Amino acid sequence: MIQKILTEHKDASFEEKVRIYNEIVQQLYDFLGLEHPALNVQLVRMQCVEGNDYNPNKVAPPEMRLLELSIRKDGLTMPIVVATEKKDDNWVVVDGFHRTAVCKDTEDIRQSLKGYIPVTRLNKTIENRVASTVRHNMARGTHQIELSAKLVAFLKRNDWSNQRIGEELGMDPDEVLRLRQITGLAEAFQDKEFSRSWEV
User: Fold this and answer.
1) Whole-structure pTM value
2) Deepest in the core among 7, 12, 99, 113, taking most CB within 10 A?
């Protein structure tokens, strides 16, 4: 059946081929029934993908050049993770900020993808997307401490307990406490959860 569709549309425009590709992948994903985003890679226009405003992962120029070389030599081997909920009709990056930048800003790479970028989608609230970004970055061993602390404070302000923050981000209680302290001692110690630790 799929071969018949592909044969019938072999001379279609690239945009039409993208539409068919996305539709087939979505149907196969639904058919398979395994709820892992990597199994549902969709192609979207690059200009419709934008970075988030909280990403704490910074990449130095030499590493960015290496990332560009890697994509040029090996192709884009991992899709960009975006939020299901759009912002002003754009997909917002959860993981893959720097890969997105390289694909958008490097002419030959952009042309090799014909202006499209592969994405997988996460259906999560903003605070859960923040936690997901932190997990992706920490799993690769790249995450700035100061900005991690700001994200911990953000999650705390969104009513996440210290225990949940630790569990969701893979941190022990001392790490959560240290990151809270970085954002200011007064804020870190104003809640009862921390106050109890000082009781005799």
Assistant:
1) 0.68
2) 99
